[in-house]
């Protein structure tokens, strides 16, 4: 089963207990019971966490999430308490560390789609539905939907695929009231972010959120609206009926499926190391996404 090509050893920091190493983030708990999330420069493609890191990626994801959290505070609270680096942690943790509330997490990936692509497109081609929601005839890859839709998924372990589920299945799992809150908050946050991105010449095709409860308050967790959790397309190049250029790790995907990589994504062998030019182009694309969306420069 795919997973890490080589799983890293967790960094030991006095006063922190290592909880989990994910595809991108390492999770710790401090003495106060708060969570400490550290975004690495790892990247994952086709269910593999690759052996080659993308410099600055973890910092870009963290800083972009923080920027978005600020844009969304009136719609949904978030889990961030501080960005202070714990005493004794490596200097490299600066800019990529979040100290967060420990939430009662909802076991659902909350996906909003405003455009048809990815797994939604694959389901639509078979059934003219996405997560049980009927869609009009004639849509193609990249089509804008008549209105944004909530298409939840179950959260998968490293190396497994998230599985799209219906709204009814979510309601059965978490209760009707929580399911309704998840749907309305997800679509409200997506709508705000879509409009902000559009003003900056960027299409937010789809995105996924994770939520937890801080007491009785539904609270945004993890990362939000980054190129790892969202599909961002340059608006001036949008052309339905084909795969869209995107602000993410598409350079990595394209290289791994090219003859140059000499790798079979359906086989059992792990992917090879990335060449320097693919690493640099991918880093530049993440930085461009940050700059386009925030209006700030990435140095």
Which SSEs are present, and which pair or pack?
Blueprint: E1 17-21, E2 25-29, E3 35-39, E4 44-45, E5 48-49, H1 57-71, E6 80-82, E7 97-100, E8 104-105, E9 110-115, H2 118-127, E10 129-130, E11 133-134, E12 144-150, E13 153-154, E14 163-164, H3 167-174, H4 176-199, E15 202-214, E16 217-221, E17 230-234, H5 250-256, H6 276-294
Can you give me a brief rundown of this structure?
Pathway: Purine metabolism; IMP biosynthesis via de novo pathway; 5-amino-1-(5-phospho-D-ribosyl)imidazole-4-carboxamide from 5-amino-1-(5-phospho-D-ribosyl)imidazole-4-carboxylate: step 1/2. The longest helix is centred in the middle third of the chain and has 24 residues, at 176-199.
Q: What would you say this structure looks like, in words?
A:
The longest helix is centred in the middle third of the chain and has 24 residues, at 176-199. This protein has a domain at 104-237: D-amino Acid Aminotransferase, Chain A, domain 1. Helix 1 (57-71) packs parallel to helix 6, helix 3 crosses helix 4 and helix 5 runs antiparallel to helix 6 (276-294). The chain is built from six helices and 17 strands. The termini are far apart. A hairpin with a 3-residue loop joins strand 1 (17-21) and strand 2. With 299 residues, the protein is α+β, with helices and mostly antiparallel strands. Residues 19-266 form the SAICAR synthetase/ADE2 N-terminal domain. GO terms for molecular function: ATP binding; phosphoribosylaminoimidazolesuccinocarboxamide synthase activity.
Structural class: alpha+beta
CATH superfamily of the domain at 104-237: ATP-grasp fold, B domain
Series of secondary-structure elements, N-terminal to C-terminal: EEEEEHEEEEHEEEEEHHEEEHH
Instruction: Please write the CATH class name of the domain at 104-237.
Output: Alpha Beta
- CATH architecture descriptor of the domain at 104-237: 2-Layer Sandwich
Distance between the termini: 38 Å
Q: What's the rounded overall pLDDT mean?
A: 94
* Biggest β-sheet description: 6 strands, antiparallel
Q: What fold name stands as the CATH topology of the domain at 104-237?
A: D-amino Acid Aminotransferase, Chain A, domain 1
Q: Helix coverage percent of residues?
A: 25-40%
What gross morphology would you assign?
globular
Number of strands: 17
Radius of gyration: 19 Å
Low-pLDDT runs of 5+ residues are none
């Amino acid at each position: 089963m795919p997973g890490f090509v080589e799983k890293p050893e967790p960094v030991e920091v006095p006063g922190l207990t290592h909880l989990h190493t994910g595809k991108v983030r390492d999770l710790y708990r401090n003495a106060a019971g708060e969570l400490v999330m550290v975004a690495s420069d790892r990247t994952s493609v086709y269910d593999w966490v690759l052996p080659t890191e993308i410099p600055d990626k973890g910092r870009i994801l963290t800083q972009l999430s923080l920027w978005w959290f600020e844009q969304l505070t009136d719609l949904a609270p978030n889990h961030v308490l501080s960005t202070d680096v714990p005493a004794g942690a490596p200097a490299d943790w600066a800019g990529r560390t979040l100290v967060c509330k420990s939430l009662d997490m909802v076991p659902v990936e909350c996906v909003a789609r405003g455009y048809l692509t990815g797994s939604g497109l694959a389901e639509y081609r078979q059934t003219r539905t996405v997560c049980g929601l009927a869609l009009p005839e004639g849509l193609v890859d990249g089509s804008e939907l008549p209105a944004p839709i909530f298409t939840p998924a179950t959260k998968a372990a490293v190396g497994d695929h998230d599985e799209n589920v219906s709204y009814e299945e979510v309601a059965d799992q978490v209760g009707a009231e929580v399911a309704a809150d998840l749907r309305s908050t997800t679509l409200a946050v997506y709508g705000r972010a879509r409009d902000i991105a559009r003003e900056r010449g960027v299409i937010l095709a789809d995105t996924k959120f994770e939520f937890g409860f801080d007491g009785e308050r539904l609270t945004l967790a993890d990362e939000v609206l980054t190129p790892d959790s969202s599909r961002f397309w340059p608006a001036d190049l949008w052309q339905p009926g084909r795969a869209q250029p995107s602000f993410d790790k598409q350079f990595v995907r394209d290289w791994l499926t090219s003859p140059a990589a000499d790798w079979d994504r359906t086989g059992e062998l792990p992917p090879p190391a990335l060449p320097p030019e693919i690493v640099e182009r991918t880093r530049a694309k993440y930085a461009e996404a940050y700059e386009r969306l925030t209006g700030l420069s990435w140095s």
